[in-house]
Amino acid sequence: MEKTVNRPKVKICGLTRIEDADFLNEAGADYAGFVFYEKSRRNVSLKKAAEIAAHLSADIKKVAVTVSLEPAFVKEIETLGFDILQVHGTLKTEVKEMTALPIWRAVNISDTDTLEELFAGNRESIEGYVADGAGYGGGKPFDWEVCSSRVRALSKGKKLILAGGLDAENVRTGIRYFHPDVVDVSSSVEEDGKKSRQKIEEFIRKVRKDEQ
Ligand SMILES: O=C(O)c1ccccc1N[C@@H]1O[C@H](COP(=O)(O)O)[C@@H](O)[C@H]1O
């Protein structure tokens, strides 16, 4: 018998096509992530993101996924009606000061010894922590066994978004370890580098399946 755990919301990240929005609508995702990072194969222009976002159901929240976000880009993101700023890399003081959008601070965990440093600072200005694996959208989990209780303690009082190599097979284990508010996936719901309707549905089904 599986122990009862909370049922987190689901973020599907890295939309690049209009049909990706249809997949999220059909599967009932809670958050849609758009990557604004030129080095990523999932990078989209603001124009393209707006085009795709216009096809999303109104109840799906739009997350702008960025790396060391430049202040100059914040207003453009706000103008397009994004709901949340996800910031990997450096979170600049000007960015924190200039926006009223909720900030999800992403911590990319490669060295478990430095976990506490990754969560240090910025606490008052952020809504949640994205606990993610090494690299950006690398599709690899961090060491859950070593980190889970520390991540839960460090994120206490904030939203916890679990990311990094989640898939339909491991997501329920991740939920049991971390009790996240949101589970966040990109790589494993792709087929040949494109979002897959079937994989998105399967992932969301696994997250929401009734505990027995
Ligand atoms: O997906 C990307 O290319 C990316 C680029 C820059 C910053 C973050 C990026 N992705 C984020 O990675 C996690 C998890 O992805 P995965 O399931 O391990 O592939 C998610 O938060 C994405 O927003």
UniProtKB/TrEMBL annotation:
Keywords: Amino-acid biosynthesis, Aromatic amino acid biosynthesis, Isomerase, Tryptophan biosynthesis. GO terms for molecular function: phosphoribosylanthranilate isomerase activity. GO terms for biological process: L-tryptophan biosynthetic process. Its EC number is 5.3.1.24. It comes from the Bacteria. Coiled coil: none annotated. It is an enzyme of class 5 (isomerase). Pathway: Amino-acid biosynthesis; L-tryptophan biosynthesis; L-tryptophan from chorismate: step 3/5. Residues 10-205 form the N-(5'phosphoribosyl) anthranilate isomerase (PRAI) domain. InterPro entries: Aldolase_TIM (IPR013785), PRAI_dom (IPR001240), RibuloseP-bd_barrel (IPR011060), TrpF_fam (IPR044643). It catalyses: N-(5-phospho-beta-D-ribosyl)anthranilate = 1-(2-carboxyphenylamino)-1-deoxy-D-ribulose 5-phosphate. SUPFAM superfamilies: Ribulose-phoshate binding barrel. The keyword Isomerase applies. Belongs to the TrpF family. This is N-(5'-phosphoribosyl)anthranilate isomerase. It comes from Roseburia zhanii.
